[in-house]
């Protein structure tokens, strides 16, 4: 083999290895892994969409929970905390298909309030969470609906930020302000703080995850996927609350 051909073959091989490492790095990063200084893969606390049957977990009743984005009346007897990523397909299914039924049957009747907690699982969903924080509060949930409805468009775009800013403009957010939102370190720390607290304190391992809270306590339910599952939980909770109220 000539030296020229050997060099050409080596160059092709090296290029292939570089491409492989880049793709592998992007994949591992999206799953929450990084490389430490010794070349070892280290898991960053992260979460991912899950299909497993929900296994409830009792939580400390005195835990302080986020209260930024609330749907429903303050005096509702039960609160459902929805930990959700804008880039999670299961989260989109819940928000678009299940939440409207919950709103009709429970929220609109004053029986439940829902608190939406952004829980980004990748860079694009983090950008979506940052921009959503700049949308006026009365337009927050409609904007969330847009992000989930258009999830595949911006999530698979070459430039997700550009797509997200266009949706924000349609919701009345100035493009220049949207750009500043993406660079808001204080807001980023708050979002990531809620995410880390969800992982280390609440035990959240995937999205969507839900915490059901009332005066009898708090329970974590990972991966609820149907209206019927949530209906069963709320029916039991309401019955228990009514029973205690009647016995007073």
Features:
6-stranded mixed sheet, two-stranded antiparallel ribbon, about 15% strand, 9 helices, elongated, about 250 residues, Glutaredoxin, alpha+beta, 2 domains, single chain
Walk me through the structure.
It is a single chain. By secondary structure, the protein is an alpha+beta fold. The protein folds into 2 domains: 3-43, no CATH class; 48-246, Glutaredoxin (3-Layer(aba) Sandwich), CATH 3.40.30.10. The protein has 9 helices and 10 strands. It has helices at residues 3-30, 89-107, 123-132, 140-149, 151-155, 160-170, 175-182, 185-202, 227-246; strands at residues 33-35, 41-43, 48-49, 57-59, 70-71, 78-84, 112-118, 206-207, 209-214, 217-222. The strands form 3 sheets. It has a 6-stranded mixed sheet with strand order 4-10-9-6-7-5. Strands 1-2 form a two-stranded antiparallel sheet. Strands 3-8 form a two-stranded parallel sheet. Helix 3 packs parallel to helix 6. It is elongated, with a radius of gyration of 22 Å.
Question: What is the gist of this entry?
Answer:
The chain has 248 residues and is α+β, with helices and mostly antiparallel strands.
Helix count from the secondary structure assignment: 9
The CATH class designation of the largest domain is: Alpha Beta
Any low-confidence stretches, pLDDT <50, length ≥5?
A: 13-52
Largest sheet: 6 strands, mixed
What amount of the residues lies in strands? 15-25%
Broad shape: elongated
Taking all residues together, what is the mean pLDDT? 82
Numbering strands along the chain, what is their spatial order in the largest sheet? 4-10-9-6-7-5
The total beta strand count reads 10
Query: What is the radius of gyration?
Result: 22 Å
CA-CA gap between termini: 92 Å
Query: Can you say what the CATH homologous superfamily of the largest domain is?
Result: Glutaredoxin
CATH topology of the largest domain: Glutaredoxin
SSE class? alpha+beta
Overall helicity: 40-55%
